[in-house]
């Protein structure tokens, strides 16, 4: 049975196109954390009605070292995404799009961007598996893992729905997780969210603004 992400567009659903996450068939829906507005102010993603500061949580990186997200990414444009390596479509597509956007942004904004991927499937996504998977897209991408409780706490700090597992035939399981990529500017403020419908051009267009940290702290 194919593993399904929360963000997968079901047949006949407009969920991904509208920025609304969907869910595996037969499981209860995971609601977005809060209402969001459409892109405004020149942003190419989705602007949250309530902007959040860069969250604080600590997990383990793929080298086995503690990674304090707020401290290690402070003052840098950062894209943060929660997903898992067995995801059949949304997760690899999202990471490939970000990698392409980073290259498209060139030597200006590209190297100034930090990309952090947190696994929602720590049982299968060992450090080695996570590192190998991320290297397919960009070796600079940071992979984080931890206990289920630690990963839940990180999602709560970000303000997104908690990932859920659901048993499937053959002893397998699905992982339903939030679809959004949270984007923080160099001012440590979350300015925009990107969903499955976001394109390489959307990410690339916003990177220079994230690097220069427009706006004021909330």
Molecular structure report:
This protein has one domain: Glutaredoxin, CATH 3.40.30.10. It contains six helices and nine strands; from the N terminus they run αββαβαβαβαββββα. The longest helix is centred in the middle third of the chain and has 20 residues, at 90-109. The chain is 28% helix and 19% strand. Residues 1-39 have low confidence and may be disordered. The strands form two sheets. It has a seven-stranded mixed sheet, sandwiched between helices. A two-stranded antiparallel sheet has the order 6-7. The radius of gyration is 16 Å and the shape is globular. The chain is α+β, with helices and mostly antiparallel strands and 218 residues long. Strand 6 (164-167) and strand 7 form a beta hairpin.
Strand content: 15-25%
Amount of helix: 25-40%
β-strand number: 9
Kindly report how far apart the N and C termini lie. 45 Å
Silhouette: globular
C-alpha-based Rg, rounded: 16 Å
Structural class, from secondary structure content? alpha+beta
Biggest sheet details:
7 strands, mixed
pLDDT averaged over residues: 82
Strand order of the largest sheet: 2-1-5-4-3-8-9
H/I helix tally:
6
Name of the CATH first level: Alpha Beta
User: What are the secondary-structure elements, in order, as H or E?
Assistant: HEEHEHEHEHEEEEH
Q: State the CATH topology.
A: Glutaredoxin
Number of domains: 1
Going by CATH, the architecture would be 3-Layer(aba) Sandwich
Which regions contain 5 or more consecutive residues with pLDDT less than 50? 1-39
For CATH, the homologous superfamily is named as Glutaredoxin
């Amino acid at each position: 049975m194919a593993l399904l992400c929360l963000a997968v567009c079901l047949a006949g659903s407009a969920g991904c196109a509208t920025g609304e996450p969907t869910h595996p068939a037969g499981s209860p829906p995971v609601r977005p954390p809060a209402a969001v507005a459409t892109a405004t102010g020149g942003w190419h993603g989705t602007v949250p009605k309530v902007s959040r500061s860069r969250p604080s949580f600590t997990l383990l990186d793929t080298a086995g070292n503690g990674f304090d997200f707020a401290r290690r990414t402070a003052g840098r444009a950062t894209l943060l995404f929660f997903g898992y390596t067995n995801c059949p479509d949304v997760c690899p597509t999202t990471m490939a799009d970000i990698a392409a956007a980073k290259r498209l942004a060139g030597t200006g904004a590209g190297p100034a961007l930090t990309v952090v991927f947190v696994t929602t499937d720590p049982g299968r996504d060992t450090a080695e598996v996570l590192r190998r998977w991320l290297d397919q897209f960009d070796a600079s991408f940071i992979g984080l893992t931890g206990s289920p409780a630690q990963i839940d706490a990180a999602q709560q700090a970000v303000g997104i729905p908690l990932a859920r597992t659901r048993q499937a035939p053959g002893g397998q399981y699905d992982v339903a997780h939030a679809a959004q990529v949270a984007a923080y500017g160099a001012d440590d403020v979350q300015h925009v969210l990107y969903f499955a419908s976001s394109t390489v051009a959307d990410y690339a267009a916003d990177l220079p603004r994230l690097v220069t940290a427009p706006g004021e702290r909330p």
